[in-house]
Give the backbone structure.
Amino acid sequence: MSNKKKADGLVHISKMSGKLEGLKAISTNTLTNPFCVKMNEAKKETICSHCYSHSMLKGFRKNTAPALQRNSDLLSSKVLDLAELPTIKDEVFRFSAHGELINITHLSNLFKICRKNSKTTFSLWTKRKDIVTKTLKLIPKPNNLILIYSNPKIGSILKNKPKGFDKTFNNVLEDEFKEEQNCTGQQCKDCLLCYQHNTTDTIVEMVKKY
């Protein structure tokens, strides 16, 4: 078996649908991530209480959970060799369409995927500032990775990026900040605000209810 076939058989790559149609992603299992479970069940309302991933993986997308769980286990258990990482030829690519960063090892592997595929621009949404901060003390961020801080608070636009991040992603109610909503009613492939360095640093989307 060639190294390429070996790598392609390890990390599961998802073809996205809906708003993300036309993009591919490497994701993990939201349902087994302690951070995701805690945030989803918290009494204080955050965007995590409206989590599309929890709803989908418990419902019509539950058949994808095993593949995402393999990614969770694989990416968080050890730093993989380059030969174990996938080759990606897409112009833009998403990390964590489902799930959240698990630990430093997980993020280190995503960094290595970026470095192996230097012609692709990767975007990663995360609320785990703690993991990002600890990882960046050990490993520099790849130039082809856009780190997006996903603001958990609904109705509050964070314009000051946390250290190490390139953009912020914010959720507001339908009748809030209408003039500033720049990620509502579009498909990602037609917008790409989150997948390019030279666009706005503040992304604002209307909350979707699941």
User: Anything to note?
Assistant: Residues 3-206 form one domain. The chain has one domain: 3-206.
